[in-house]
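User: Hi! I'm working on a homework problem where we have to compare a predicted structure to a textbook description. Could you give me the structure for the chain below?
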Amino acid sequence: MSHDEKFKSGDEHLIYMANQIATFFSSQPEDERVAGVADHINKFWEPRMRARLIEIIDEGGKGLSPLVINAAGVINRPKAALRRRLAQTPPRHC
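Assistant: Happy to help. Predicted structure tokens:
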């Protein structure tokens, strides 16, 4: 079984990865945690991944660590996600 087979959806995989990042940074000094999570996601996640993570957060963040949710304001929003938020329209589901 591949590691992807344990996830029912791509969203579950994104949530898992984001929470793994939060778990790592939860051991860092408190004043560095949020910035550490956001910095890692900004550097290593492609725009489509960040856009979907932001949509999940905007939809309530179900399953996400509070540390990931707290980092949302510092995570760079890809242009499509930013436009959607500014327009205050619900995200499109594929």
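For your comparison, note the following. The two ends are 26 Å apart (CA to CA). Helices lie at 10-25, 30-44, 47-58, 66-71, 79-87. Good luck with the assignment!
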